[in-house]
Structure formats: structure tokens, C-alpha cells
Amino acid sequence: MELSTIPGIKHSRSLDYAQQVHYPHHAQQVGPIFFKTPRKCSVFGICSEGSGKQLFYLVGEAENSGIGKGANSVVSMVHHYFQHHGHGEKGRSLHFDICSGQNKNIVLWYALWRVLVGLHVTIRYSMMIAGHTKFDPDWHFGVWKLRWRSSDVETLQEVAQSVMKSSRNGHNIPQLVQDDDKPIKFRD
What distance in Å separates the CA atoms of residue 18 and residue 45, rounded to the nearest whole number? Predict the structure, then answer.
């Protein structure tokens, strides 16, 4: 059965990692911060192409220890997205690059598991060829990076605020990993 004929499919999702950012970050800062060690924040985006909105998963250094940017973190965040931000579709199309650090075999097995347990009827993956140019998540990351360059940020919550303020129409949405309402459980 072709994906477009399955009821409930409206549009696909694209997912990608952005370059990590360091905070505290000050727009007018000339050199390194004296006596402060910057913290790292990994940024993973899932873009809903039909609505033009992207959820930014912001993973602080403390939450990211031992997880990194591998398949376990990708699967955990995609699973969280389907649980809390999905629209209940039974068919899904996912689009991502083929970065070798994210073991695509694990991600593909995750999709198979979702179908086997009945969470989806079908999931279709599209992987970009090596050396690809840009796709939707990169555009959202670029819009945010423009705001980031002129931001003064001290905490992870302020990183989230910079994501929220980066789009006038609210198409960039922050999601902290340790959110009180919807925390992400990283699985192995």
C-alpha cells in the first residue's frame, strides 16, 4: 500500500542534529569568558513539513552524558515526539540524513517495532545522499542561529527562550529534555 493512500497521513517529518551551542553566550563578548566554563547544549530538530513547525530538542550537558548523538538518543527523541507531539497518524514518512554516527540500523529497527506493536501501520524512511545540501530542519536551525548570534544567554532555559523568540510565527518550538511536564527517557 502506498503511503499517500493510508488514511491519516498529512505530511512527513524531517529530523536532524544541529551543531551544539555553548552557554553562557553573550553577543558582545570579544574573547573567552573569564572564570566560566561554557556548558554544551546539543540540538536535535524534528520538522513537521506540512505545518512548517519544528520542535527543537535541547539536551544539556548533564542529560547528555554517555548518550551522545547516537541511535539511542535519536530513537528516544523520535519516540517522545510521537508520544507527545504526534497527530495519531497510522502512517508516517520520515526524512533524515545518513550520518554514520547515528546507527541507522537501530533507527530502522525502531520503526519496525512501532509497526509490529501496532503504533503505526507503516513507516517509510527517506535518507538523503552523502554530501546533501540542505533540507527543512537546516532552515529552522538557520533562523534560530540568526537570533542566537545576537542573544545573551546564561542558562538552558534561556537557550529555549532564544529558540522561541527566533520565529515570529511560532514555528520554532523548544523542548527541554528535563521538562517537568514531558521529560524524555533515554533508552538503550
Answer: 7
